[in-house]
Write a structure and sequence with these properties.
The chain is α/β, with parallel strands linked by helices. 36% of the residues lie in helices and 11% in strands. It has an 8-stranded parallel beta sheet with strand order 2-1-3-8-7-4-5-6, with helices on both faces. The longest helix has 21 residues. Pathway: Ketone degradation; acetoin degradation.
């Protein structure tokens, strides 16, 4: 058994909406270059596996067959299908669209297979995390929903309960919608309040359609929430509900766009805080589900100074060789990043550590982040038999 499988191929760079689109393949190329320069690919516990395209029958475990056919047709003809979200500003049509998006799904499902079969404790797909795609439409740079497909594959393989955890600045609406009334899945999303950011969903009152049970947990944070507030919010909700839910596996999405430098969101969560959340998920996976953890990429559009740092740290965490916050980054990587982007590259792996207050320190009604956390706890905790203020 390997400690972690990293699903990677240069073919994943073909998921490319074109020049000027925020979902730039450079995010992945620079991340893999950093992973290489840091020596992570030489770690004995990390195995790199080449993913293949998901066949239609796999895509159709979470998408309508008519939608899969529409993606194929749009990619072949170049004609938009706006009713299905194809050919919009967010999701332009490109010739390799079906194959490229299907490979993302194939990678995430392969990571889930490796974890469930015991071939690896942890599976990672930094190119994945396309959490906005719906059963019948593309949305928010996402054509197929690889995160949902990984969750569904775990269920189909015998998992009785799967937790999906979404750390992206944008609400994980597509995954939540697909499993809205599925009692075997708990979706957790911490994100910028939907009243201020796409996709406009993820209210704390949205707890799923299950009868007498919670299937969705949403922590909607105010704009400009910083690292300390974000960590406090995650810690105040996530560990408690996961321990109550007792999953057989965890699938997590590590969109890096909560960072203060990201151009498409308004949170201010640093690299160290995002690194810390990945460590917490790693620890919870070992505590609750024998280490079965599938970690995915997601959003993140500060392609030089944020995304490669967060995702290289994620891979290192999963490989049990965590990186130190503030460590110098390799000069060869900085030079390559600046040459590729024309932008100054980060010199260190973030700054840190962050001082934050645990929920047990007391609720502050004057703090907008505390009010957001309490709103979630009030809607969710009673469904688990917990006290919103004390547990």
């Amino acid at each position: 058994m390997s400690v972690a499988q990293l699903l990677w191929s240069p073919e994943l760079l073909r998921y490319d909406f074109g020049l000027g689109h925020p979902m730039a393949p450079a995010r992945l190329a620079l991340t893999m270059r950093l992973i290489t320069e840091l020596g992570l690919l030489g770690e004995p516990g990390l195995e790199v596996v080449d993913p293949v395209c998901a066949p239609d029958e796999l895509l159709e475990t979470v998408h309508d067959a008519d939608y899969v056919a529409a993606v194929r047709r749009a990619a072949t003809t170049g004609e938009p299908d706006v009713a299905r979200g194809l050919g919009t500003e967010d999701d332009p049509v490109f010739p390799a669209m079906h194959e490229a998006a299907a490979r993302l799904v194939g990678a995430s499902v392969a990571a889930a297979d490796a974890v469930w079969s015991g071939r690896a404790q942890h599976g990672i797909n930094i190119a994945g995390g396309m959490h906005h795609a719906r059963r019948d439409a593309a949305s928010g740079f996402c054509v197929y929903n690889d995160a949902a497909a990984a969750v569904q594959r775990l269920l189909d393989s015998g998992a009785e309960r799967v937790a999906y955890v979404d750390l992206d600045a944008h609400h994980g609406d597509g995954v939540e919608a697909i499993f809205w009334d599925e009692p075997r899945v708990l979706t957790f999303s911490v994100h910028q309040d939907g009243r201020t950011l796409f996709p406009g969903t993820g209210d704390p009152a949205d707890t799923g359609a299950g009868l007498n049970h919670c299937t969705a947990v949403n922590v909607a944070l105010p704009p400009r929430t910083d690292s300390a507030g974000w960590l406090r919010a995650v810690d105040a909700v996530l560990p408690t509900v996961l321990r109550e839910f007792a999953p057989d596996a965890i699938v997590s999405q590590h969109g890096a766009d909560a960072h203060g430098n990201d151009p498409l969101a308004d949170l201010s969560v640093g690299v160290h805080a995002q690194k810390t959340a990945a460590r917490w998920l790693h620890e919870l996976a070992h505590e609750l589900c024998e280490g079965r953890w599938v970690a995915l990429g997601g959003g993140g559009y500060a392609v030089v100074d944020v995304v490669p740092l967060v995702w290289a740290a994620l891979v290192a965490e999963a490989a049990h060789v965590p990186l130190e916050t503030g460590m110098p980054l390799p000069a060869a990587w900085r030079e390559a990043a600046e040459e590729m982007s024309g932008l100054p590259a980060a010199r260190t792996l973030g700054r840190g550590p962050v001082t934050w207050r645990p929920w047990s320190s007391g609720y502050d009604p004057s703090d907008p982040t505390d009010r957001a956390v309490l709103a979630t706890r009030r809607h969710v905790f009673p469904e688990f038999g917990l006290d919103p203020f004390l547990d």
